[in-house]
Amino acid sequence: MIDFNAATRTFNLILAGSVYAFQVDGEGRLVHLAWAPRPAGATDDDVIDGRNGFKAADSVASFERQTRRDEFLTFGDVTYHEVSLKASFASLPRDLAAQEALHGPIRDVRLRYASHEVVTDAQPGLAPTHGLPTSDPSPRQTLRVTLRDTVQPFAVTLCYRLTPEHDILERWCELENSGQEAVTVEALNFAVLHLPKGATELTSVYGNWAREFTTQRERLPVGIRVIEQRGLQTGHFANPFFLANWPGQAWEECGPVYFGALAFSGSWRITAEHLASGDVRIHGGYNPFDFRLDLEPGQRHVTPAWVCGVSNAGWGGASRRLHAFTRQRVLPRAPGWSEERPVLYNSWEATYFDLSQAGQVELARKAAAIGVELFCVDDGWFGARRSDLAGLGDWVVSPEVFPGGLNPLIDEVRRLGMRFGIWVEPEMVNPDSDLYRQHPDWVLHFPSRPRTEARAQLILDFGRPEVVAYIYDALDRLISQHAIDFIKWDMNRNVTEPGSTAGQAIWRRHAAAVYAIMDRLRRAHPHLSIESCSGGGARIDLGILTRTDQFWTSDNTDAFDRIRIQEGCSLAYPAMAMEAWVTDVPNHQTGRISPLSLRFDVAMRGALGIGANLNRLSQAELDECAGYIAFYKRIRSVVQQGELYRLQRLEEYGASAVQYVLSDQREAVYSLAVRDHQIDQHRPPAVLKGLNPSATYSALDHRGQEVYRASGFELMTQGMIDDSGKGIGYSRTLHLVQVEK
Ligand code: DGJ
Predict the structure, then answer these.
(1) pLDDT tens-digit map of 181-228
(2) Residues 6+ apart with CB under 8 A from 577
(3) 611: Cβ below 6 Å to ligand 1?
């Protein structure tokens, strides 16, 4: 609900459990008033009415006059702190030009309130154009507040889209140049989030290839903490989300926690700014590194969204809001696919580049027999791609690998009752490819400079419309000529030499082109499902998730490492999109041996996939896999649609216990995995959450056998079955089902 008090010009954005308020002050500035969980018992009539003159105290020092909490901070008003926007004008408007000598370029924007409106179904920049609905397509309100520069013909509209049921606001801005000259934008954040003073405990993730989502929690020192990726994809080094709270006042399940996540897969930056005054501002938007946006006369620019919220239920509450929002409002619903993600088989770790028609058919038969629903052929099926040294860019089926084309394999996969998927890496080219031989100028590079290769590949210049058109046509042809249900869209290197015909706009244009190709493919092939992959988890964000169905979380498939990677990932992203495979031992990335039970128990925390070489498994092992897959199908709706509770976190217990529970409380899933354990170490039994206290639950293991029976009250007070003494590699998953007493 959006409440506007016309007398005090105060806005209240009222969400299920939180409120966000700001006011137009006497000078027409938009000043932030509050963002907080709503106190228990508050009604929709309880709002901040803007009469009490509440104003964050200014510093007494004449050196610090820039702590006012403007809803949009512009360079000009603010010069020595971070800003939302820095733009420059080449000259004054004509009527003012004669007045004084120009101190140009004029790097000064002053915005004052002009108007506001509430609209339904407004869309941020780079919103999907595939036309597919989300699970909840009901309309949403957006407040649009337009601010105009006091001198220049330039306006900024601040947008706030409300998803009240999840306490989520999507913030973005729209710039408009209505003048006769171009405006040069030098820095642009989608929005600034003003946290309460002192909310300086920051949670974020960092990583690298095979080490994604390493959680770090730190106290923000006074100064600036930058979380960023300078790249063409979201990146491994960090992921564009944060959680923040007052130190010591929030924990996994209690206390107010603020959160934000960028819906953008290009070069991004989150800047957490802790001023000496105690103010905390979290800016999110385009990375200003090598940034430039020329807004031509008459042109508008709409930024992607900075998705944010506050929860009173700790880090877990913040995660659950992001998960529910992503499940219901972000992920597309392709026709013909159920709400839940299928069990996938991917042949990458089984065969790598050693592909053959017969080998894939053999794997497909075994996969179908153990219950797999979607069979995906990975890298190596096309052109001269017999290793990672050649062939990228030539998206034609290799007759060497598939002499009769792909269709005989696809037919067999379908006959076996599975859907068919295939790997592609559309943004790349190997110099040893027909595409590169024909178009050496189609890659990112600077003339007469080296073209640095990584994994023997170069990046296509998606700033060139003809390249984007070529890649779209190649993929469209592939999908049109074959019954392909699913593509795994990969991207396997970071950018160097970002020289493009699009100039510095390539930092935005590349992601926009990826989005456009995906959207167009989904429009042309509505049944198509897409997995986002970038050397594992380097393209996971709320922007890509509006046009993909799931993501490949990490190339690290070691179950022990996965406990941590998936726990970090779960801070922001829901289990249903988090693809997790069971692979062979010794693990190909770490060499570690882990029991099959642990590999399944950890992979079943997300969208289950199998990546093991099924030809190497004994019949007994295949039967065991089949048993786990059947079990996963029984618990899948709970894992993928339920609310997640991180009952015991790895960093505290050396073990991770998580729970998923359906909103009607009839079913839950409990999952424990022990990574570290010392002799005589005793973990407390995990205390469950969100159950019906007066109901009785039967806890069934993967064989369907009851191993425990207790009331919701007991499970939420005494805790779960006591596994406290169990050692390294121990795991269990239990399906809790309500039964008669
Ligand atoms: C990186 C991906 O993350 C892997 O799963 C696999 O698809 C390879 N690329 C193939 O080259």
Answers:
(1) 999 999 999 999 999 999 999 999 999 999 999 999 999 999 999 999
(2) 326, 331, 341, 545, 549, 550, 551, 606, 607
(3) no
Phi and psi at residue 305, to the nearest 5°: -100, 150
Give 273-325 as a 3 state SS string.
Answer: EECCCCCEEEEEEECCCCCCEEECCCCEEECCCEEEEEECEHHHHHHHHHHHH
Instruction: Indicate which residues carry an active-site annotation.
Output: 490, 555
- Ligand 1 atom with minimal separation from the 423 CA: 7
Centre of ligand 1 to C-alpha 716, Å, is 42
Q: How confident is the model at residue 64 (pLDDT cuts 50, 70, 90)?
A: confident
Sequence-ordered strand ranges (E) for 474-528:
486-489
Q: How far is CA 395 from CA 427, 474, 600, in A?
A: 12, 6, 34
Handedness of CA 32, 186, 441, 465 (dihedral sign): positive
Pairing of strands 529-532, 550-552: parallel
Task: Tell me: pLDDT of 623 over 90.
Answer: yes
Radius of gyration over every alpha carbon of the chain, rounded to an integer in angstroms: 27
Whether the pLDDT of residue 56 is over 80: the answer is no
Q: Which two tokens stand for residue 110?
A: 């002053």
Q: Report the residue among 378, 428, 494 best suited for mutation to probe ligand 1: largest number of ligand atoms under 8 A from its CB.
A: 378
- Whether 659 and 645 have beta carbons less than 8 Å apart is answered as yes
Q: Is the peptide bond before 526 cis (omega within 30 degrees of 0)?
A: no
Residue type, 64: E
Residue 118: is its pLDDT beyond 70?
A: yes
d(CA 533, CA 523): 21
What does the alpha-carbon distance between residue 507 and residue 266 come to, in Å, rounded to a whole number? 6
Q: Is the CB of 279 under 6 A from ligand 1?
A: no
SS (H, E, C) 620-632: HHHHHHHHHHHHH
Cα distances from 202 to residues 217, 272, 323, in angstroms, run 6, 9, 19
Tokens of 202: 């920051």
By three-state DSSP, how is residue 613 classified? coil
Upper half-sphere CA count for residue 364 (Cβ side, 13 Å): 26
Q: How far apart are CA 482 and CA 485, in angstroms?
A: 9
Tell me the whole-structure pTM to 2 decimals. 0.98
CB 72 within 8 A of CB 30: yes
Is residue 249 within 8 A of residue 255, CB to CB? The reply is yes
In this model, does residue 425 exceed pLDDT 70? yes
Quick one: what percent of the chain has pLDDT higher than 70?
99
